[in-house]
Design brief:
single chain; alpha+beta; 30% helix; Dihydrodipicolinate Reductase, domain 2; 7 helices; 2 domains
């Protein structure tokens, strides 16, 4: 049965990312993906994918203001593939933009009962080719943030890949090596027969989520044994993982 990595944390993204996220400028934030990549490259893992995700509450207070914003964006991104979803209390406009890096998408969501709670999401993800390609994608992502967002959105960075080994061996050798490289403080672990997840805190990252007044978290790792136990897939992200694994 497929499980979610720390459902409590993931379900709180919509709230904690606004209230507790560390505010830094875009130049600082762009290093997090590369910090993850450098740490993973020091293990025996093979990176397959990377992703960047930014989210910010919109500075609007009315449905009219939201409509005007979307109309301006539709003019700006005329070459994008647009889709619209309308529900009783929600409107969602999405634009998939052609990109040489992979998949690029912007989403604007309006809550009709409370327009001030509306927000925008910007996503960029692709297959891993090289460190240079990832750096160019990260630079491109952060340049676009300055035109899409008014303030400082919280940014989530993620890398996926595979270890050519059993889960037990990966835990004994690779995970400990990764934690040491990032000087991470373990906060919580979940371990099962074919699944392992870790939440931790490292000073190497710019973003962080406050768990309470004394403790912060900014890195999550998920491992799953696959292929008759011959390989172990992984996903690592900061400050938290926002997708199931």
């Amino acid at each position: 049965m497929k499980k979610y990595i720390f459902l409590t944390f993931i379900s709180l993204v919509c709230f904690t990312s606004w209230v507790f996220g560390k505010t830094t400028n875009a130049d600082d934030k762009q290093t997090d993906l590369l910090v993850l990549e450098e740490a993973v490259q020091q293990t025996d893992a093979s990176i397959t994918e990377w992703s960047l995700y930014a989210r910010e509450r919109l500075s609007i207070s009315t449905e009219k203001g939201f409509t005007e914003l979307v109309e301006n964006m539709q003019q700006k991104y005329q070459h994008a593939k647009w889709s619209v979803e309308k529900k009783e209390d929600q409107m969602k406009y999405s634009a998939i933009i052609p990109s040489s890096f992979g998949t690029e998408k912007v989403t604007w969501i309006l809550y009709t009962h409370d327009p001030s709670a509306s927000y925008a999401i910007y996503e960029l993800h692709g297959d891993f080719e090289s460190t240079q390609q990832m750096k160019k994608a990260s630079d491109y992502f952060h340049r676009n943030i300055t035109t899409l967002f008014n303030k400082n959105p919280q940014i989530f960075s993620c890398i996926k890949g595979v270890f050519n080994d059993k889960l037990d061996n990966v835990l004994q050798k690779q995970v400990n090596h990764l934690v040491v490289n990032l000087e991470a403080e373990k906060i919580e672990e979940v371990s099962e027969n074919e699944f392992y997840s870790l939440s931790s805190y490292s000073t190497h990252f710019n973003e962080a989520i406050s768990l309470n007044k004394q403790q912060k978290m900014n890195m999550q790792l998920g491992l799953r044994e696959t292929g008759l136990g011959l390989t172990t897939t992984f996903v690592i992200g900061t400050p938290i993982l926002t997708t199931e694994y």
